[in-house]
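Backbone-to-sequence.
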């Protein structure tokens, strides 16, 4: 295992008997092939599977690995999404770019006037988040202020992964949000929040949550108003999660705020990267790893 934030967990098809697969995506810059290193709870063994690397010149950095629609999705907020079915004998790795910049990302010439393409894209990506919301991938971006104008927040939805088609949802100026009575009531400055640790309501993509001046703001962007507001000492390790009844009624849950979206304050970052389905098999994974290390 290399484990450079590129390891995901996916339940076996059908979800029977709690079987799962642990998958690490290993890429090498300059190589048009990559490797899936897979551990199956069914066989108890590791297996290597060759897959395509759609951007050989790109240095992949994954901010999230998501189990969705029977596939694993690796999310690079600068370049795009990679996804495949790791249970297939010959997985077909697909690529969904976030923008029409594939040719730019493939460029190997870093001595031109534009400088390092990779570094430039990483800087741009600090104003972007990609999350799975209500069964669809959403890309949220905050623009940089220009010519004295307030920045804008926009959202796109991935409507067809096979054709990499993104559909625009909205584009709203922060000036409209700041002008609302609901924002004025917070007494916060007219300052665009950074997207670091921001998130989308897990069931309502119109509502975005930002952190500003030790406060969390729930903003209905389409309505251009603040719908939730709460003081919070830290924005670290906050997870939006629609809890199933079985978990929400128990005590083995991280501390939750009064927000109706079930905003959880988690003690460790890795918890924020797994779903409820994945949490149910974490104990089995730990046992499997321990067994293989001792063997």
């Amino acid at each position: 295992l290399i484990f450079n934030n590129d390891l995901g967990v996916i339940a076996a098809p059908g979800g029977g008997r709690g079987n799962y697969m642990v998958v690490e995506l290993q890429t090498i810059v300059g190589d048009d092939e990559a490797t899936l290193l897979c551990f199956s709870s069914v066989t108890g063994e590791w297996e290597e599977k060759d897959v395509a690397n759609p951007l050989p010149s790109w240095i992949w950095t994954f901010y999230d690995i998501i189990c969705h629609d029977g596939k694993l999705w690796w999310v690079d907020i600068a370049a795009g999404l990679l996804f495949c079915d790791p249970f297939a004998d010959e997985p077909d790795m697909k690529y969904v770019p976030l923008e029409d910049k594939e040719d730019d990302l493939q460029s190997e010439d870093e001595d031109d006037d534009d400088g390092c393409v990779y570094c430039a894209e990483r800087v741009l990506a600090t104003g972007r988040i990609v999350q799975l919301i209500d069964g669809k991938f959403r890309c949220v971006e905050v623009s940089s202020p220009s010519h004295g104008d307030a920045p804008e927040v926009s959202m796109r939805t991935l409507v067809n992964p096979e054709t990499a088609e993104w559909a625009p949802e909205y584009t709203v100026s922060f000036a409209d949000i700041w002008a609302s009575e609901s924002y004025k009531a917070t007494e916060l400055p007219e300052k665009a929040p950074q997207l670091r640790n921001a998130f989308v309501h897990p069931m309502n993509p119109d509502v975005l949550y930002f952190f500003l001046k030790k406060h969390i703001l729930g903003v209905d962007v389409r309505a251009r108003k603040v719908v939730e507001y709460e003081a919070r000492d830290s924005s670290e390790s906050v997870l939006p999660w629609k809890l199933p009844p079985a978990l929400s009624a128990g005590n083995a849950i991280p501390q939750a705020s009064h927000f109706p979206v079930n905003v959880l304050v988690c003690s460790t970052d890795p918890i924020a990267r797994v779903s409820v389905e994945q949490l149910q098999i974490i104990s089995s994974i730990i046992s499997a790893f321990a067994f293989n290390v001792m063997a």
